[in-house]
């Protein structure tokens, strides 16, 4: 049975931002997937080095 605990080290809303940057996608219209599904209001957290 899968665990309901979050992945260790994963960032979650409410955690300190640190050096992360955020990009928001599909805010005004959905992001359509090949299989016909849709994603809306996506937030991608990322870090860059160098």
Commentary on this structure:
This protein has strands spanning 21-25, 31-32, 38-39, 42-46. The chain is an all-beta fold. The protein has a domain at 19-50. A two-stranded antiparallel ribbon has the order 1-4. Strand 2 and strand 3 form a beta hairpin. The radius of gyration is 14 Å and the shape is extended.
Low-confidence residue ranges? none
Cα radius of gyration in angstroms: 14 Å
Number of strands: 4
Q: Order of strands across the widest beta sheet?
A: 1-4
User: Helicity level, as a percent range?
Assistant: under 10%
Mean model confidence by pLDDT: 87
Sheet/helix structural class = mainly beta
Q: Please describe the biggest sheet, giving its number of strands, its sense, and whether it closes into a barrel.
A: 2 strands, antiparallel
Shape: extended
Number of helices: 0
Q: What fraction of residues sit in β-strands?
A: 25-35%
What is the straight-line distance between the termini?
41 Å
Series of secondary-structure elements, N-terminal to C-terminal: EEEE
